[in-house]
Amino acid sequence: ETDLQWRATDNLTLGLNAGYVDATYDEYKDTFCKVIKEDGTLAVPGCTNGHGDLSGEPLERTPKVEGTLTADWDSQLTAGLRLLVNSAVSYSGDYFITQDESPLYKQGKFTKIDLRVALADMDDRWEVALVGRNLTDQETINHAFQVGRAHVASVATPRYVTLQGTWKFR
Predict the structure, then answer these.
(1) If you write DSSP's letter for every residue of 64-113 in order, what string do you get?
(2) What does each C-alpha distance from 109 to 86, 92, 99, 157 come to in angstroms?
């Protein structure tokens, strides 16, 4: 895992945070059965009366590779006005959302881009910004579970763009 920041110029700061994880259960017996089919059918080998063995299987919610590149720009436009630009490109490898490794709850690899462009006064009293999140409009799973034969998942917020204003009273 690493986290780097570099002040490239007086106006530009670049960043990188990245991680590599190769995590598996050393031993995890008498637990969930691994799901092997999309209809929820449990694996027969190693699964007895609903109890399975996840020894050697990957941890849920653990991509092998993930990281974010950032760039922050802050510069003076006029005697009383600043331009601020913040961007981030985030990548995640694929991973299972749930412990039972159901293919229904496997999050595929994805890349998301966020961008914020703002104008502010030099005294930092006000700021107006256009903010875009998940500009690549990636659909990603936050949580997932199964109740009987019903499969439920909540997903992250899709692409959105907002106008943001700040006024500081002093």
Answers:
(1) SEEEEEEEEEEEEEETTEEEEEEEEEEEE--EESSTT--GGGEEPPEEEE
(2) 24, 5, 18, 17
Tell me how far apart the terminal alpha carbons of the chain are, to the nearest angstrom: 41
68-122, pLDDT tens digit by residue? 999 999 999 999 999 999 999 999 999 999 877 777 888 999 999 999 999 999 9
Pairing of strands 95-96, 106-107: antiparallel
Tokens of 159: 């692409």
CA-closest candidate to residue 96, choices 106, 87, 111: 106
59-to-15, 81, 92, 106, 162 alpha-carbon distances in Å = 28, 49, 15, 12, 36
The conformation of residue 122, written as its DSSP 8-state character, comes to T
Give residue 30's pLDDT band: very low, low, confident or very high (50, 70, 90): confident
Q: How far apart are CA 71 and CA 139, in angstroms?
A: 24
pTM over 0.70? The answer is yes
Report d(CA 90, CA 3) in Å as an integer.
14
